[in-house]
Amino acid sequence: MSNYNVNNSTVNALLGWIEEDIVAIPEIQRPFVWKPSKVRELLDSLYKDYPIGYIITWQNPDARLKDGTVSQGKRILIDGQQRVAALMAAISGKEVLNYKYQKRRIKIAFHPFEERFEVQNSAILKDKTWIPDIAEVFNNEFSQFNFINTYCQENPEMSHDKLNGILQRLLNIKHSTLGIIELNHTLDIETVTEIFIRINSSGVNLSQADFAMSKISVNDVYDGPIIRKTIDYFSHIIKSPAVFDNIKNNDSEFTTSDHFNKIKWVKDYNTNIYEPSYSDVLRVVFTFKFLRGRLSNLVSLLSGRDFETREYKEEIIEDSFEEMDDGVLKFVDETNFKRFIIILKSAGIIDAKLIRSKNSLNFAYALFLLLRERGFNSSDINHAVRKWLVISILIERYSSSPESMFDYDIKRFANANNPIDYITSIENGELSDAYWENTFMDSLETSVASSPYFNLYLMAQIYDNDYAFLSKSIRVQQLIEERGDVHHVFPKKYLQNNRYNHHRHYNQIANYVYTEQAVNLAISAQAPEKYMEVLKQQITNNEFAIGEIDNEKLLKDNMKMNCVPASIFSMTASNYDEFLIERRRMMMEKIRRFYKSL
């Protein structure tokens, strides 16, 4: 059996198939992102009989029903959606949704004298030589005879015959040829993705999550459009609450559903710690509900594939959609989501910039939802999720082959009588003393400020409620929340003046601390031994020059919580490398204590 068929059709036929729901638009590349000028160019190409590329459809498999009959699968439009939406907007007069989920018409005007298209504007509406909206010409009730008479009366320099020929050419756009590549339903998701990438020239790469969303959105029988909108709207509202009113005003069908009631809380919720995309929602739901990690398997299950017999069965589709719907509602549940955010904050994650690994966050939420579904008590869930999140960051567990690791880990958590048992087994194998003393110490030798290891150090500081370096009133957490900057224990300018000229030298993360701006300015470009001597003097004389610390115990405590060695009092540039080694060890020990205390 061939992987695909190539056929020719017409614009008119394709639009008709979409109206009749023979070909489904799953809104993969949603919403409509083309600029009106690009719609105009598409119409111009069709008018001039230029090719506009292939449309790619993917046949949904025929599913075997319980009574033995076969349900005919739809064809899903996976490439060409923007072109088709543009044609529906310009020719059929359909409204499209913009990126703010506002409905709007794209009106394309046509100038018969010059035979050119333009996006409608106020000047065109005042000019009788223009056809202001070509959708009127393509309307089934359009009278070409009456239009020609009226137009020629208003524009006597245009002859009836010439206008008739031009209009006929315009109307022939509907009969323009389109190439349609029909991909066979037997193709696996990897092959479909590869074909799409090789054919597509618009620079848009579709992920497996996109294909899963397409499978969900075209299944009306099991409320696929409702499930898809719940995922899509939730992920957009949490990033931009302003779109909520547009969704409410433009999708009355969805806003009357229970699913809408389950997500509307998010418009009033403000968090930048975890803002899941639709891809993240799918991955989390699939992981905890289906105990699998590969999204390609979700696409197969939503199509009804029996992995043993390789048949496509309706009961598998039904079960998969039921599980998917339940999982999505648990993901967007207000109590679940807010409890998960509280767990993140309790682990020192108060800002999105403290965690670069979206995979670690996604698995942590999948684990939370799995343990909730299995009925574990809140204390055990909090402990397990915090511990696993930090361990996954420490060993960068999901940095490579994340789907395989998701699959491996979720199955073992599901089979464990106690989640801590599995966590302990990983801890014993991955977090030995050798790991901390060698591997982790080596990881701290970097100048990358966004390093997960420096972020772990900051999480430990937040967890311990530490004060900023040389401060007794401002905490590290407050500086991070207010978008404060990190500063250098050995000032950057000081190091540059002493032959440490490369950023890899002076920007070592072991040279970073969170400090008040006023403290940093007071330190300026002084050697550590100089500004620490000023601190000792201010404690003795009670004359403040750097910060507010006014006694020796406070200073020692502050240095300890910021992992600054006591030897700093006598350090100059010649001691910089020695300082880095000493401070890395202190940072490592702090992070190790933080992990063990979770």
UniProtKB/TrEMBL annotation:
InterPro entries: GmrSD_N. This is DUF262 domain-containing protein. It holds the Pfam family GmrSD_N. It comes from the Bacteria. PANTHER family: DUF262 DOMAIN-CONTAINING PROTEIN, VNG6097C. Residues 23-215 form the GmrSD restriction endonucleases N-terminal domain.
